[in-house]
Amino acid sequence: MRIIVLGCLWLSGWGGFKGVAAEPPAPIPINANLELTPLTPDTLLVTSYTEVEGWGRIGSNGVLLVHEDAGFLIDTPMEEETTRQLLDYLESEMQIWLVGFLAQHWHRDSMGGLTVIQERSIPNYASNRTRSIARERGLPIPEIGFEDETALPFANRLLHIRFFGPAHTSDGVVVWIPQDRLLVGGCTLKSNAARNLGNLADADPEAYPLTLQKLWDAFGESAALVVPGHGLAGGPEIIRHNLQMAQQLP
Ligand SMILES: [Zn+2]
């Protein structure tokens, strides 16, 4: 029921990401640390906010794909509690139950809430790179692995998941959904507003520009909507902006 409301908001609030209207849809607040923003009629941006020492209040993105009462979540909020609140809200207010979850990399802004996903017996996926880093670091391990490229079915869509090379971390994958021409970049991509590539503690500065060049070659022409790990979604210029920032890394 609720998703119909969201769909209408999208239709009336935003002519679409293909460039008709200037204004993106307004976020729908769930609580002080969590909001949902319609991206397409059946895709929502999940933004969660967490106080991170040394960085302040950080907003992190996940993406929720919806089909009828089923949802597929890409990346959790950083906190277990916020992840629990998100799932509770989806179930009780929107009648959406997750049938799958993908962690795009091993940092907590991708899988900090993995335990909550696993408690609810939701099939949870990550690349074998991410799973082995999680194992080495004593983090919860996503249960279902895949090699550097795979495709997961969700309802009438296929999620094309691919590792293009090291960048923000050595394991970050992106998700491409052809029907929506939607690229979910995760923390491999920062927003157009970002002035730098943020947390480089686990980054590979040498490979970073090469990986982003491959992303640009793959999606620069075809992507209509690009979702970064933090900040606002945009178009393929996000990839180019990140490539320019990566080329300036020391
Ligand atoms: Zn991040």
Describe what you observe in this structure.
The chain is of the alpha/beta class. The protein has one domain (2-247): Metallo-beta-lactamase, Chain A (4-Layer Sandwich). Helices cover 28% and strands 31% of the residues. It has seven helices and 13 strands. The strands form two sheets. Strands 1-2-3-4-5-6-7-8 form an eight-stranded mixed β-sheet. A five-stranded mixed β-sheet has the order 9-10-11-12-13, with no helix packed on it. Helix 6 runs antiparallel to helix 7 (237-247). The longest helix has 15 residues, at 80-94. It is globular and about 50 Å long. Bound molecules: zinc ion. Zinc ion is lined by residues 107, 109, 187, 229-230.
| CATH class identity | Alpha Beta
Count the domains: 1
Largest sheet: 8 strands, mixed
Oligomer: single chain
User: How many helix segments?
Assistant: 7
What compounds sit in this structure?
zinc ion
Q: What is the fold-level CATH name, i.e. the topology?
A: Metallo-beta-lactamase, Chain A
Write a short abstract of this structure.
The protein is of the alpha/beta class and 250 residues long.
Write the layout of secondary structure elements.
Elements: H1 2-13, E1 28-31, E2 34-40, E3 43-52, E4 56-67, E5 70-74, H2 80-94, E6 97-102, H3 108-111, H4 114-119, E7 124-127, H5 128-136, E8 144-146, E9 149-154, E10 157-163, E11 173-177, E12 182-186, H6 208-219, E13 225-228, H7 237-247
Parallel strand pairs: 5-6, 6-7, 7-8, 12-13
Antiparallel strand pairs: 1-2, 2-3, 3-4, 4-5, 9-10, 10-11, 11-12
Helix pairs in contact: 6-7
Bound molecules: zinc ion.
Zinc ion is lined by residues 107, 109, 187, 229-230.
